[in-house]
Design goal:
The complex is a heterotrimer of chains A (about 240), B (about 775) and C (about 400). Chain A has 6 helices and 10 strands. Chain A is of the alpha/beta class and about 240 residues long. In chain A, a hairpin with a 2-residue loop joins β4 and β5. Chain B has about 775 residues and is of the alpha+beta class. Chain B has 23 helices and 20 strands. Chain B has a 6-stranded mixed beta barrel with strand order 3-4-9-6-8-7. A 6-stranded mixed beta barrel of chain B has the order 13-14-18-15-17-16. A 4-stranded antiparallel β-sheet of chain B has the order 2-10-1-11. The two termini of chain B are about 30 Å apart. Among the domains of chain C are: about 80 residues, conserved putative lor/sdh protein from methanococcus maripaludis s2 fold, CATH 2.40.420; about 90 residues. In chain C, the strands form 4 sheets. In chain C, strands 2-11-15-13-12-16 form a 6-stranded antiparallel beta barrel. Classes of the chains: A alpha/beta (about 240), B alpha+beta (about 775), C alpha+beta (about 400). Chains in contact: A-B, B-C. At the B-C interface, α13, α14, α15, α19 and α21 of B face α1 and β2 of C.
């Protein structure tokens, strides 16, 4: 269902225009229809939570929007850039310049320190913030030279946040950012996301199956069976620190 | 990309053992290549230089006697650059401390050095003084071997006269770089004494005043050597000359050439095998290493690294490992080459023989090895970068296992789940399992093929010196003599039996091919010398029909019943047409046999012999040799026991040095393959293994799953490797087949045993190291990192 | 422990044990291939042999009975002469002078000597005849025994040979006697006073049948009495004179059996040692070494028909048989080895090598007679390689051919 209602600050053009997006996987067990026609507009500066049970297609949408995967059919346009038909090179550049990722399992490079993990990204960014600043933003200034093995789960994820944001991306994709964390660490991570997104003015998309998290978003999109089920606007947004699960 | 480089270095450190194992494999391939080519180069260079400095001649001829004035005629032949007439005479000499008398050959030094060819290189002492008639310069190797020194006097019987020589100098000569002793292919320094004396002294001893009985000729490069030789023959024929021989047939040079050729052959065979095996394994290992890093690659791509940028660190890693291995290999190869050169220095008497480094061989093999390492990495990286980053980063889906041939019915009950895991993994990745199996088989193959040579030597020794030739001593006469000469020798102390032998130097011709050789006349029914056919049955000596060595027959492309042109190259030259009667099977040389009476008849001579085969009682040998030394007409004596002992000595010594190399190399390959295969399997499946332990399986059982894979592959590799080893041994036999020594194929049980043991030890060692990791598994951290 | 883990352990142990067993099997020392021969019974002869020359055992020199003018001799070496028939020379005797006392004494002495020689020849004839009788009766005796089966074929043949030899000797002695008588006649003729004949030529007849071997005086000339004119040899009386090394000659005795071989004919000829010269002489060998040699005369005992082609001056090789054993235990020469100053062989027992000391008797060029240490049927290694040592495991290959 296309919701044309936008929030107050959205006189701007959509950052993402998605029309009729489908994604079909072929596995050894047969065809899987991950997305069955999704239409959506995303506005810059939004925080969106994609909710739904596992297998509903939310992660698939994230991956396609993030340029990690390609749609089977349909249109995805990012600020006028056609992602669906883009070349690998274009997608790579897109990811390099405009996108930051945070994954459920942190995916930090074990042989690099927190600082180095962030520098991994700032090294190829056009105009990044300094790695130190990124880490300070997420509250890990005193752990910059620790290896992931020496950090707790929440700290690792915050490093991932710093890494994602250090290049000043326009969009921040978070796939189950708190999925591996306990409630307290999860809250810290969500706070960090909020801060850094605000710092650089990034649009944030969070995929989760945890309905409680949905309350920090501007819009909550519910997925089921490869389609958007509902789109709700959060009238009373909460702060991450108010959450507990 | 600076952080990526930091990651690279840290990864390299983390993988240090695997990287080392890979580097070692590369080092092995490069080392063998460098070793082979460097030694060749060192020898080749030394010889070139030596020949050049000493003006080594191109044509050699011996004759009965010609006046020195004939030299002018020889020099006038078109194409001749220099002529060096000399006198050579030999006899026997008893050396203190030695049982068997040595051959003493005296050679006249030229009067004018500018004209001299085959110049000697004085290593100690001085040249003989013209005013002192009995001074002589001796061959250095003879002095070293016998312990004689400058200033010592030796007495020889030459031409029936007893001559005393005083040694004033020690020299090396290009004509005697390598002197195979009569009857074997090994040098016998103690019994080959060469002495150079002033012309006047030798003229007197040989009774050849103003004359010469041997000549060395140098020709202008580029001229038709055969034509010049023919003219030399024509000029010398009236003076009792045999056929002049070109440099290629000069004893020392010919042997050196054969050695070089053998080096070249082994240089062409072994290094490529090692390189290919090493490179193949490296490729395999690198690609598996990188596969493990798939997730990281996906991550980099997710963050906007291009395919190329993501691949570069791995290429750098591979190149670093490759280069490290190559440099190690280069250094090892250089060191080994030094060792081989030292070994050769014992046989080849160049005044200077220094090690050398064949840079091109190093560069090419290093490039090849590094390239293949990088290619291995590249292939795997490409596989990873081709994937969508999302897919790359996703935990790998459980590998599809399907019901395979082992499932169902009986096996299900027989094989417990753990063993089934092993077998299913092997069958799920057939290519990988096969490649690992091949790699292990390759190491076993190399082990077998490098050792079998020593089994072959044993067979050759037994066959040549105890089956075919059964005499204990062979005496050569300076001239042909009748049967009373044989009788005379029978009457020396210790002689149990004696048989005459007549050998004639000839040239065999057939089908446009020419081969220089000898025709040996044996008594029919001889017990002491029995040519044998390929089944080991003794061949009867006939009056019509030659017994031809198989090797000679195949060189000349003749078979049983075919005619053969035989040109006698001594005395009255004549050409005979003989038929090939039977073929004999032997491992060295290219002999041809005829019944002695028939041979004598063919050259119109009576019942004569120029050698005697003897059976001498072993504890009477000293007396025998002593009596023999004063018989004037005896030109030399060969002792079978001494020859065999020398052979064994050389083989044993070279065995211990080369076997250490090859066992080490092949062991390194086996270790490298199995260590890497199991180490990577461990990394790939660490979660599965940890899960097993969580489920309650003990360390031992978990280790069983990991080690079991390798053990099954090793067991499968055993028959494969043994088969491959036999095939490789056959290939080596065929490759060496054309040389002076042919090897029988056939690998002894002992060799199999040693090879399998080394194989098992190498694999066992690697498994112990990897299995230790299983025991050190930190379950919690391993399990936490993934879904 | 679960049954599965027990099974796994069992499999592991079985595999491990199997591998170790394989290794042990492979490390067994390989049997060494050797060529063997069996100790057999057979004939062995120990002999010494050397080369020599065939020569006429007796050459008869015809000399001028008186001084005179010898007509040119027409006979040439190789011509056949018949005793008492062929005229071998014609001599016109010179005027016979009265012999001066010295010449007369010389002539008389010559007669005496000739008489003595004739007497000696006569007694030689008597001796040989007696010898013949003895040999003949021995032969008869042996033949009777042989017919009954109590004497061996060898003994019979020896007796026959001995009889034949004795016969030959009688002929030789008789021929010798004839020659001596002719010489006596010639010596007596020299005592005759002046002849009144006009100098008709005396015809000198051949005293024996045979071939002219040498002609000493071919041209016509005046010769004094006693000059050797020509030499006639009896083709039947060819003997072989073999020059043995003195060390070998010491072992030779008259009457020992012998053989003549390498004379150009199809097979070796039976012979007997007739005489060993008492005095040795120095000779330089083919190889240039000085040696002491002794001439040994062998008499051929086979009928002349067997060796028609052999003539005086031909090269022959003679072998004297020192020892002969018909039924000796033999090993091939190639199996003999030396051990601590004595002889030994490598005896194969149950596939292993045992060093067995032996004592040997006769040694021929191919085999040796075993006196102690081995029995018939034992297997010994021929031409052992240096790997053959006591205790070693071997793989035997029987070789064809004798000892």
């Amino acid at each position: 269902m296309l919701d044309t209602s936008t929030n107050a600050s959205s006189h701007s053009l959509p950052i993402f225009e998605i029309r009729g997006l489908t994604k079909v996987y072929t596995t050894e067990a047969g065809e899987v229809h991950a997305l069955r026609g999704v239409d959506l507009d995303i506005v810059p500066g939004e925080m969106i939570v994609l909710l739904g049970p596992s297998g509903s297609g939310k992660s698939t949408l994230l991956n396609i929007l993030g340029g990690l995967d390609r749609a089977t059919s349909g249109a995805v346009v990012f600020k006028g850039l056609d992602l669906a038909g883009a070349s690998d090179r274009t997608l790579t550049m897109y990811r390099r310049r405009s996108v930051g990722f945070i994954f459920q399992f942190f995916n930090l490079t074990a042989s690099l320190t927190a600082l180095e993990n962030v520098r991994l990204i700032t090294d190829i960014a056009a105009s990044p913030m300094s790695a130190e600043k990124a880490l300070t933003l997420v509250g890990l200034a005193d752990r910059m030279n620790h290896f992931p093995a020496q950090l707790s789960g929440g700290q690792q994820q915050r490093v991932a946040v710093a890494r994602a944001i250090a290049k000043r991306p326009e969009v921040l994709f978070c796939d189950e950012p708190t999925g591996s964390l306990d409630s307290e660490s999860g809250v810290q991570v969500l706070e960090a996301i909020k801060i850094v997104a605000g710092e650089v003015g990034a649009t944030v998309l969070i995929v989760t199956h945890n309905a409680d998290i949905a309350s920090i978003a501007d819009r909550v999109i519910r997925f089921s069976d490869g389609r958007i089920h509902t789109i709700e606007r959060n009238t009373s947004k909460r702060e991450p620190r108010e959450l507990s699960w | 990309m600076r952080v990526l480089d930091i990651k690279l270095l840290r990864d390299l450190w983390r993988l240090k053992w695997q990287a080392l194992a890979i580097s070692v494999l590369i080092a092995v391939g490069v080392a063998v290549t460098v070793m082979a080519y460097s030694s060749q180069k060192a020898l080749s260079t030394a010889r070139e230089q030596y020949y050049r400095e000493t003006r080594f001649a191109d044509i050699f001829a011996t004759l009965k006697r010609a006046p020195l004035s004939l030299t002018r005629r020889l020099a006038a032949i078109n194409g001749v650059r220099a002529v060096d007439p000399r006198i050579i005479k030999s006899g026997l000499m008893e050396v203190r401390g030695q049982v068997r008398p040595a051959i003493a050959q005296i050679i006249s030094l030229p009067e004018r050095d500018e004209e001299a060819l085959n110049r000697i290189v004085l290593m100690a002492g001085r040249l003989p003084d013209a005013r002192q008639p009995h001074e002589a310069v001796a061959l250095k190797t003879f002095l070293d071997a016998t312990g004689l020194r400058l200033g010592d006097e030796v007495s020889t019987v030459i031409g029936g006269r007893r001559i005393t020589l005083r040694i004033v100098g020690a020299a090396l000569s290009p004509e005697y770089i390598y002197m195979p002793s009569p009857g074997s292919t090994l040098p016998d320094d103690k019994h080959q004494g060469i002495f150079w004396m002033t012309r006047a002294a030798v003229e007197e001893a040989a009774d050849l005043d103003g004359a010469f009985n041997a000549v060395a000729i140098a020709i202008t490069p580029g001229r038709n050597e055969a034509a010049i030789r023919a003219e030399v023959d024509a000029t010398l024929a009236p003076y009792g000359a045999g056929v002049a021989i070109p440099r290629a047939d000069q004893a020392s040079h010919a042997f050196l050439e054969a050695e070089f050729k053998e080096l070249k052959t082994s240089g062409a065979i072994f290094p490529p095998i090692f390189l290919i095996v090493a490179a193949g394994l490296v490729h395999l290992v690198m690609s598996r290493l990188v596969d493990v890093e798939r997730e990281q690659i996906g991550l980099l791509k997710a963050f906007g690294y291009s395919d190329f940028e993501a691949a570069v660190p791995f290429l750098r890693l591979a190149t670093l490992i490759g280069l490290g291995g190559a440099i190690m290999g280069g250094a090892l190869g250089a060191w080994l080459s030094q060792g081989i050169t030292t070994l050769y220095r014992e046989f080849m008497r160049f005044p200077e023989l220094t090690g050398d480094f064949h840079f091109a061989a190093f560069a090419i093999s290093a490039l090849l090895a590094t390239g293949l390492t990088a290619a291995g990495a590249l292939v795997a990286v490409r596989r990873a970068t081709r994937l969508n980053p999302a897919v790359a980063m996703a935990p790998p889906r459980p590998t599809t296992y399907r019901a395979g041939i082992l499932d169902g019915g009986y096996f299900d009950a027989m094989i417990d789940p753990l063993s089934r895991m092993i077998l299913r993994t092997l069958f799920r990745f057939p290519v990988r399992s096969f490649m690992t199996c091949v790699g292990l088989a390759a190491s076993l193959m190399v082990l077998l093929a490098t050792q079998f040579v020593y089994d072959s030597f044993e067979v050759v020794l037994d066959h040549s010196y105890y089956r075919i030739q059964r005499w204990s001593d062979q005496v050569g006469l300076a001239e042909v003599r009748g049967p009373s000469a044989v009788k005379n020798l029978t009457q020396l102390p210790g002689v149990l039996a004696a048989e005459p032998i007549r050998s004639i130097p000839v040239i065999f011709r057939a089908n446009g091919i020419e081969e220089r050789g000898g025709l040996i006349g044996l008594n029919p029914g001889s017990e002491l010398y029995r040519p044998r056919d390929e089944d080991g049955q003794a061949l009867p000596l006939l009056s019509d029909g030659l017994i031809l060595s198989e090797a000679l027959a195949s060189k000349l492309k003749v078979g049983i019943g075919d005619p053969l042109l035989v040109e006698v190259t001594e005395g009255e030259r004549r050409e005979l047409v003989l038929t090939v009667g039977r073929l004999s099977h032997d491992y060295s040389g290219t002999p041809a046999y005829l019944a002695r009476p028939a041979l004598n008849r063919l050259v119109s001579e009576g019942d004569v012999a120029n050698g005697v085969l003897l059976l001498v009682a072993s504890d009477a040998r000293a007396d025998f040799y002593h009596a023999l030394a004063s018989v004037p007409l005896v030109a030399g004596v060969v002792s079978r026991d001494d020859t065999v002992a020398a052979f064994r000595d050389i083989v044993t010594r070279s065995f211990s040095t080369t076997m250490v190399f090859y066992l080490g190399f092949a062991g390194a390959i086996a270790f490298g393959v199995s260590y890497n295969a199991s180490r990577i399997a461990f990394s790939e499946r660490v979660r599965d293994l940890a899960t097993l332990e969580v489920l309650g399986f003990t360390h031992a059982e978990t280790a069983f799953v990991l080690a079991g894979e390798i053990v099954v592959l090793a067991l499968a590799a055993m028959p494969l490797g043994i088969l491959g080893g036999h095939l490789l041994a056959d290939a080596i036999v065929a490759a060496y087949g054309r040389d002076e020594m042919r090897l029988p194929s056939g690998i002894s049980a002992w060799t199999h045993g040693v090879s399998l043991l080394a194989f098992a030890v190498a694999i066992g060692l690697s498994l112990i190291i990897v299995v230790r990791r299983v025991f050190d598994l930190d379950l919690v951290s391993v399990l936490k990192t993934r879904d | 422990m679960t049954s599965a883990s027990i099974r796994r352990l069992a499999i592991a142990i079985v595999l491990g044990a199997g591998f170790v067993a394989l290794l042990i099997f492979l490390f067994q020392p390989d049997p060494i291939p050797v060529e063997t021969a069996l100790v057999r019974k057979g004939m062995i002869r120990q002999s010494v042999s050397d080369q020599g020359i065939a020569r006429a055992s007796d050459a008869f020199v015809v000399s001028a009975p008186v001084s005179g003018r010898l007509e040119r001799l027409t006979l040439k070496p190789g011509d056949r002469v018949a005793a008492g028939e062929t005229v071998v020379a014609r001599l016109r005797p010179a005027q016979a002078e009265f012999l001066d006392p010295r010449s007369r004494a010389q002539a008389e002495a010559r007669v005496a000597a000739a008489e003595a020689s004739a007497l000696a020849a006569q007694s030689e004839v008597n001796r040989t005849k007696a010898e013949l009788q003895r040999a003949q009766s021995n032969y008869d005796r042996v033949r009777r025994l042989a017919d009954r089966g109590t004497a061996s074929i060898d003994a019979l043949e020896s007796a026959e040979t001995a009889a034949k030899v004795a016969e030959d000797q009688v002929s030789a002695a008789e021929a010798s006697l004839k020659a001596r008588i002719a010489e006596l006649d010639a010596a007596r003729a020299a005592l005759i006073g002046p002849m009144t004949t006009t100098g008709e030529p005396i015809e000198i007849l051949a005293p024996v049948s045979g071939f002219i071997r040498r002609v000493f005086q071919e041209s016509e000339r005046v010769v004094p009495a006693g000059t050797s004119l020509l030499e006639i040899s009896d083709p039947h009386a060819i003997e072989a004179a073999i020059d043995f090394l003195s060390e070998d000659a010491v072992l030779i005795r008259e009457g020992q059996p012998a053989e003549i071989y390498d004379w150009g004919g199809p097979s070796a000829l039976g012979a007997v040692v007739r005489r060993v010269e008492p005095q040795g002489f120095t000779k330089v060998s083919a190889l240039g070494v000085e040696e002491q040699r002794v001439t040994v005369v062998l008499q051929i005992s086979q009928p002349r028909a067997d060796w028609q082609g052999l003539g005086p001056g031909y090269r022959v090789w003679g072998r004297v048989i020192l020892r002969q054993n018909e039924d000796a235990l033999l090993v091939p020469l190639g199996s003999l080895i030396r051990d601590a100053g004595g002889w030994a062989v490598f005896h194969v027992v149950d596939g292993h090598i045992v060093l067995t000391r032996i004592e040997i008797g006769a040694v021929s060029g191919q085999a040796a007679e075993i006196l102690t240490g081995l029995k018939e049927g034992d297997e010994v290694v021929q031409f052992p390689s240096d790997r053959v040592k006591p205790g070693v495991l071997v793989e035997t290959q029987r070789s064809e051919g004798r000892p």
